[in-house]
Amino acid sequence: MSNIESVLNETRVFEPSAEFVKQANVSGMAGYQALCKAAEQDYAGFWAKLARETLQWKKPFTKSLNESNAPFFKWFEDGELNVSYNCLDKHLAGQPEKTAIIFEADDGKVTKINYRDLHARACQFANGLKSRGIRKGDRVIIYMPMSIEAVVAMQACARIGAIHSVVFGGFSARSLHERITDAQACAVITADAQMRGGKVMPLKPAVDEALAMGGCEMVHSVIVYQRAKPDTVRPDTAWNAQHDIWWHDLVLGQSTACEPEWVGAEHPLFILYTSGSTGRPKGVQHSSGGYLLGAMLSMQWVFDYKAGDIFWCTADVGWVTGHTYVAYGPLAMGATQVVFEGIPTYPDAGRFWKMIQNHKVTTFYTAPTAIRSLIKLGGELPRQYDLSSLRLLGTVGEPINPEAWMWYYNTVGQARCPIVDTWWQTETGCHMIAPLPGAMPIKPGSCTLPLPGIIATIVNEAGDEVHDQHGGFLVIKRPFPSQIRTIWGDPERYKNGYFPEEMRGYYLAGDSAHRDEDGYFWIMGRIDDVLKVSGHRLGTMEIESALVANPLVAEAAVVGKPHDIKGEAIVAFVVLKGARPADPATSAQLAETLRTWVAKTIGPIAKPDEIRFGDNLPKTRSGKIMRRLLRAIANGEEISQDVSTLENPAILEQLKNPVR
Ligand code: WT7
Looking at ligand 1, which residue's alpha carbon is closest to its atom 13? Predict the structure, then answer.
């Protein structure tokens, strides 16, 4: 609630400078409104025109939007294209020498690759994939550190029409296994190790572990990029000659030309797993044509992309941000972008600012959680670097608190750069609500107004639009090209989860929001049991399942509580099978065991910050866990709610006073 209060009181407004407005791709509110009006007047025609102008088609489409099987929408369905062609080949004639990627390794070593060479490497690797029998429609898992190779792997899959599913390198073997089996992948692309913060962290062993968990018989190839020196990786790293092959051996002798596989606009480009409130992670399936259109338009509208920009999105390719604004959007625009292997705090908290200075970054896009941690570790550090190349800043992943926004604006952007606070989701594929920086004034903490053609609004439980300060559910009324097409293997979950009956066919985003008197959107948080920890989505259910899978645990309930840097911290209430620990030392030890267990089961990002043991959990007589009470306890709040429906009210006292 504290965040809702603080944003409600925010009244500062920042107009774009005349200079910025003059050079902007969409200039002034009139420019923005003209685009919105065009979309209003002929919705399908608006998108069709943009799709013709923006994408290169092998076979032009004749149909724009097909809603006949709602909510399974189709866009440009009879058109054919290839995403990798649109990201690489397209630039070969005009700018083959232009740097595509400036890669900075954890240790500071810089490698640059131009469009010609990136194209050659993607083709060569694509031929390598084909030599393993990988074909259009096959699923390929990518479990890699941030690297040029990760981008090459994604582009190569797109080139041959294989559907990639990138799994964040911080996820555990078990999470990896879940995704391999759900996607029924035939290949895994990985690395021997990843370098982060000066440490070598083995990666391939997690793949071996995942494959050993069973049900992965369809995996015939594990392609291993050699990142570490052979002697720095665990010497006992297993090598299974049946399916393991080094990346450098795979591409050896392969041609650097590879005719793209022309696919229908609706052909799935990728599946990306994300957390929901219940059940297993969902495989969000994206299209080729509509997705790439959204990526490119948002590069132009929101990032005001110009050919001379040096673009840097700090997200890992394991998240959707790293798909749209690292692997696809910038390349499709022909941009020069920075790709960074390491972490913002190594060797010190000046790393980002030093890289902006060295690479003359113009457009910088990062997460509020990173901003908050850098304020804490060195709020004055940006002033030691020359950040004059910057012209635009962006944030994504969670609401940014106005104080962090002001620091970002003044200390990093030197009160010169607009900030685009971009609201979107894994499911939307690209920005949905965000400023067009040369068009609209910005307000700290607000993601401002929907992109042209995005018909967003706020409704109550009945699906009626609301216009007051209290807000309601954020919905998008009309289908849009870049949206999720289905949940892989579970169309029912897609339909019920995002298009529940009472929402009248609107897309239900899962966030609450309100609008101010200027119509600006302010995101208030999730309406479901999804936590936002360091901007990453974690389902409470997933963490609870991981806890209950431990032989010591009988029951668990997980809630979030506000955290200065991470946004939300994870608090777990646990009932053990045996007796509750009697003394603080045993309690602390058990808590540590379980925290490590969760980190190992899901990944370090899911590790609970706090574990409290109880003889039971607060439940209604029908057996439902009352999470709002647990939330109040975790936050140290007085419980003012009615507890009369509680089966066991005494349990609240016990949970309030944990053994310490
Ligand atoms: C959820 C989606 C979109 C890429 C990264 C996260 C929250 C995202 C903002 C923002 C307030 C935001 C929402 C959304 N969120 N951006 N600018 N302001 N909240 O993708 O993991 O799919 O999470 O992130 O709650 O629903 P994701």
Answer: 398
Report the residue among 420, 532, 536 best suited for mutation to probe ligand 1: largest number of ligand atoms under 8 A from its CB: 532
Query: 358: which residues sit within 8 A by CB, 6+ positions away?
Result: none
User: Cα dist. 274→167, 206, 311, 328 in Å?
Assistant: 10, 20, 26, 19
Greatest alpha-carbon pair distance for the chain in Å reads 74
Q: Under DSSP, is residue 369 helix (H, G, I), strand (E, B) or coil?
A: helix
Distance between CA atoms of 280 and 282, rounded to whole angstroms? 6
Closest CA to 271 of 190, 154, 191: 154
Q: Is 416 helix (H, G, I), strand (E, B) or coil?
A: coil
Which residue, chain included where needed, has tokens 């239900």? 508
Query: Is 422 touching ligand 1 by the criterion CB < 6 Å?
Result: yes
Q: Is there a cis peptide before residue 418, judged by omega within 30 degrees of 0?
A: no
Long-range CB pairs of 117-122, under 8 A, 24+ apart, other chains included: 118/88, 118/148, 118/151, 118/152, 118/155, 118/331, 119/88, 119/89, 119/91, 119/92, 120/256, 121/148, 121/152, 121/251, 121/256, 122/84, 122/88, 122/152, 122/155, 122/156, 122/159, 122/258
656: number of Cβ within 10 Å: 14
DSSP state of 401: P
Q: What is the pLDDT of residues 346-358, one digit of tens each?
A: 999 999 999 999 9
Distance from C-alpha of 505 to C-alpha of 508, rounded to nearest angstrom: 9
Whole-model pTM? 0.95
Q: Taking the CA of residue 409 as centre, how many other CA atoms within 13 Å lie in the half-sphere pointing to its CB?
A: 21
CA–CA distance, 499 with 506 (Å, rounded to integer): 6
pLDDT in tens, 205-263: 999 999 999 999 999 999 999 999 777 666 556 899 899 999 999 999 999 999 999 99
3-state secondary structure of 376: helix
- Alpha carbon of 93 to those of 97, 115, 336: distances in Å? 10, 10, 16
First to last CA, the chain: 28
C-beta atoms surrounding 410 within 10 Å = 12
What is the whole-number distance in angstroms between the Cα of residue 406 and the centre of ligand 1?
20
Q: Report the distance separating Cα 171 and Cα 542, nearest Å.
A: 13
List the residue whose alpha carbon is closest to atom 6 of ligand 1. 397
